[in-house]
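2024-03-11 09:14:02 INFO queue: dequeued item Metalloprotease, len=292
2024-03-11 09:14:02 INFO validating residues
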Amino acid sequence: MLNMRSLICSALLLSSSLVSVLAAPKYRRDLQHRRGCGTHISAKHKTSAEKKFQTHRMPAADPDAKAVLDVYVHVVYANETQEGGYLSNRQITEQFEIMNQDYTKTGISFNLVNVTYIENEDWFMRVAPESEQEKTLKTEYRHGNASTLNIWTVGFQEGEAAGLLGYATFPSDYESAPTMDGVVLLHSTMPGGLKPPYNKGRTLTHEVGHWGGLYHTFEGGCSGNGDYIDDTPSEREPGYGCPAARSSCPGGKQDPITNFMNYSDDSCMTGFTDGQTTRLRSQLRSFRGVAV
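2024-03-11 09:14:37 INFO prediction written
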């Protein structure tokens, strides 16, 4: 049975086929104790996406230009408990205070327009990339256009996405699959949630980075184009916890452990680089029509 309540809040300031979840049993066991992001893109699809970016790239706008993006949050819950996925208004408000602080450097801020509460145990437990649950949920509840951020909070308790903290679509995916666009987030990663050390709000910051066109800092390991950003040093593998002064690739540069697009603990993450800011603004401008 579907029981939906809508709460209007005051303004606060990939196609799915490009997203895949690593579902091997060992990976799932690791996810119980480590950050697990389901936003992965194959080398072939990444090459295609980058060619598309170069074709559609819009001229740089005023570097001081700022933009406010509307956000719709859809809280999918099994029951009205914290364990069952129910989020308080305070948690959601704190999450966007953190997000707006984290994105200050980029000139992007987020305006929370609406929070919808959706009671559906199946969706809460089993939403995953390309699942029937995801398709039905997003088709029914997504709002806005390419520049509108939609966030669905779920439980990731069963199926291919079990153990994930979140996943997102990329800007270049919007044209081919607009109804699938947005971020799916583990409810307990919100501030004060039940998923330490990932309950200080930084998982949403990370996933929105993907939604804005950023890759993981460890993309491609020590070779190739990596994340296509010059000022994020190459990194052999994700940085879990907060391994200070780690240098995993030749050249002696320290890994970007504190970067929002790594896999570090929330308390270890501190920011984006200038190069990431430039790319994010360019991706939003080129694919989402944001005037920055």
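2024-03-11 09:14:37 INFO annotate: The longest strand covers residues 108-119.
2024-03-11 09:14:38 INFO item closed
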